[in-house]
Sequence to fold (562 residues):
Amino acid sequence: MSDPSATFGELQLCPQLLQSLSELGYETPSPVQAACIPRLLAGADVLGMAQTGTGKTAAFALPLLQRVDLSLNQPQVLVLTPTRELAIQVAEAFQAYARHLPGFHVLPIYGGQSYQVQLRQLSRGPQVVVGTPGRVIDHLGRDRLKLDRLQALVLDEADEMLRMGFIDDVESIMAQTPEGRQTALFSATMPEQIRRITTQYMNNPEEIRIAAKTSTVANIEQLCWKVEGVNKLDALTRMLETEDYDGVILFARTKTATTELAEKLEARGYAAAALNGDMNQAQRERTVSRLKGGQLDILVATDVAARGLDVDRISLVINYDIPYDTEAYVHRIGRTGRAGRQGRAILFYAHRERRLLKAIEKATRQPINPMPLPSRDQVTQKRIASFRDRVVEVFGGESLQFYRDLSHQLAEELKLEPQDLAAALLYLAQQDKPLQLPPEAAAPEKPKKPSKKERKDNGSDSDVPWESYRLEVGRSDGVQVKHIVGAIANEADLDSRYIGRIKLHQNFSTVDLPEGMPPELLKHLQGVRICGKPTKLKRDKGAGGEYDEAPRRKPKKRALKS
Ligand code: AMP
Fold:
């Protein structure tokens, strides 16, 4: 659907934005960017069926930035996101792309942040505001946020906003934006309610779907590893130590990432080099022929640089960064399994990228099976095995008489048993690659209490003790379970997995939350409004009553509270 050879320059982006993209190391537009940017630049509404990992943020941020009037210090673009995390991420992306646009301000507004700070920042006149629906409504209600100069509205992860109970807020915000504003809506799925919004509030939106091409990749074994516990670079080196490979291609997203990763691998003793669009044709050809000739074992490449690469000895492809779409995935893994050989392809993905993984599996109609991370013990065994091979090689090829005499002499002099001497020599022989991994290498596998982001990324189920809280809002206020989840998740920066059972009553509700809420957070949550009423949250002394809605999830371990 998009022209794979298009460049950002061909998409009519202005020089300042092109400069930022080049500094960020973006090489070519992703498919969703190639499709959205021209349409949004032309002022059209866009409906993008795209999930995290497809490059959707830049797909709307770049064209909308280009249309912003920097001399006007009023909100011209409003982006609504389901969570504060995403609001911050999107605001950071705008900031990064706008680094050469003087006078540009972006402001993330979200729950849990002091109103004072936000008001001060609003008064600086940001041209772009990125916020969660609840907080945006609050500011609109207090007349602190003015939308009369708004040119464009973006609904990011619309289906998530629906799931978290924000859809009424979203509609009410939409109704307060000027008539002729442009709208872009991004959603991984298109439930009925979202579809309705698109027909009601959008102007003939162009629908953008990234076409999934199906291809068969029969002779390639496909595996995936979910990034958790160990950082990606450590995981990668463990895999490289334990996998049997001949040549390897690693795929990264940006040119910068390819050089950084290649340097890190070189520093760890691998014959690795980058292959990216910053290199001229001659340099690239030289690098590829070094791989063919065996002077290099690992190439770290971007999609574009590896296009059409045909090297028989590539037996392993590692998708260090997940590709934007199925087409790119199929192309990447097709670099192995050449000339009828068997190949292996490993994909790294974060919890929040799992949808992209599912989409790839669906489009290729092939499972990508999860693989465990090689353990430290496996790495040790592998190192010992290759050491043993080297010993055998030495016995096969060298005349060892001089060394035999020397070891005899050393043992005599030092009064050592031959085994002890051999142990000391083995210790010396391992040099900077110890045969036994040092124990501290295990440390990162046991993360401390994970941050929200980590919890989100690793998808681990909660195993926390719970305590029950009471909220002074109930069904008669129009409150539903999803409203409570949405409000608490954002205001307390809590993953929704950590919001336990919710019971709705006529005039109040109860919710289980992880034990030990800090007093200042409790105080903050008391003032948070759900359906227009403050929650007045407090610890519950044991409310009776039936479940009005199915329990969301049974906590594994309940805190024993009266
Ligand atoms: P998103 O799907 O918007 O969450 O983007 C996922 C990641 O891809 C972010 O880290 C972006 O910085 C990165 N990214 C987006 N577009 C490009 C591009 N054209 N080239 C390289 N990296 C990109």
Confidence is low (pLDDT under 50) at residues 440-462, 543-562.
